[in-house]
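User: Amidohydrolase, Microbacterium sp. A8/3-1:
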Amino acid sequence: MGTVADLIVTGSVIRTADHENPFVEAFAVRDGRVLAVGSLADVSRLRGPETRMLDVGEAAVYPGFVDVHNHHALAGRTDLFELSLPPSLTLDEILERVRDSAATLPADAWIVGGAVPTTLLPSLANTRSRRRLDDASGGRPVMLMEDSRHNRWVNSRALELAGITTTSIPPSGVTMLDPDDGTPTGVLLEAAGIPVQEAHDAGGGLSPQQHADASRRGVELLNSFGITTFQDAGVSVDILDALATLDRAGELHAWVVSSLLVNDDIFGVSPIGTPLIERGEEFRTAHHRPDFVKIFLDGVPPAHTAAFLDPYPADAAHGAHFHGETTMTFDELHGWLRAVADRGLGAKVHCAGDGSARLVLDVAERLRGEGVMTPIQIAHGQFLSDADIPRLQALDVSADISPFIWFPGVIPQALADVLGERAEHSQPNRALIDSGALVAGGSDWPVSESPNTLEGLQGLVTRADPLGRAPGVLWPEQAISAEEALEVFTINAATAMGLGAETGSLTPGKSADFVVLARDAIAGPPEEIVRTPVISTWFAGREVYSA
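Assistant: Predicted structure for Amidohydrolase:
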């Protein structure tokens, strides 16, 4: 008898995300890999006495979803060990939750969590708000992240432990001072918050077991949304070790590509840069690939740290000709990308403004001319010059897009507050796809509240908030089709992170990673996509989540 399948999957709708064979009636799995796809009659010939049959009936099977940009361990840590705050809360609601948390903790314990909405930060930059946080915490140190995860709000005790005073201000980032008495308010933008992170970590931080638990929990949550592959957009040695530990124990139920931090104005971890990159290979396992670096080339628009080609609208603090700045010059970025290419690594480059995106493309042009073809992703890329959109395809640069953070809502409102009408023209996804660029979908979870890929699919199609929390649509001319959106969050994302030969489509030879949905989500009304339940998630032919 010939090859016999371990598993045969049949159903009325099986989408493969493979252009050669987009719909099939069945597929067979052996040793965790897709053995064959095709008609029910053909695939059934691979059935043996021990073959498991999975008939999903009227449900639908898609390839496992692929998330090109998240921070799984940060999300898992928040879920297990920190104070989880929906970014929709008011100040009074945040303080009440801090007070409730404090009541359960020892007198000197840190209260850490998030997220505080970006739109709330300006109203917190005063002594009165800091003292209210002091009161709610009962004197315990507090460090709350804001929803972009670039900025922090901390209380007096946290400032004290970090050594931040009126006469000792962090040299980087922005320490917001009270306009009346000149004291630090506890609102710390970008790198100004790192001394507080370091003070927290010096107090103990997480144990290796807790880091492993955080990664395991992050992957569990991703699996529950049908996600079987992801790229973590900024890892530490602790996260690398956690992922490798899980995989060696057979407990990592996803393909993971890690992005090793080259520079860091947010996380406050050590080591970064070359010392971290040199250690990456220690943590390579069957399903964990430390194959990328992460470069922060700018910050975020609400903090005026994103770099733009045209100046920000004039304000008192920055004047009329402020463009923001990149963290590296052309030569510095070129040097880093050449160095990582020599190690066989790709680069995920954070670009929140069109100025930083142009710098990446200019450097990519030089590199491609030098014969360096290392993978490069522009992360976020919500603002791109019309002249630069065709360059992504021409220079083989991927667009890592996060539609979760541009739905009409808190973050788009924060962008509008600082950018004006320019904010209405973000995420030019139709133009990118029409130009031939590789567009890959990511959630940026937990910057987004949820990693639910179905939210991303719906938002790409409708350009509206899939959960109905905010009215309106954002630049509807840039909508893409539902079929294109599915590719963005499957084969495109897998290809962008270097895993296109392993996963991303139901193709013979690839890992048998798939999700079973209650119905064919993308075939019905776009407004109903997000309401489609996930029935089960399968990784390498094994069920890793069941509703």
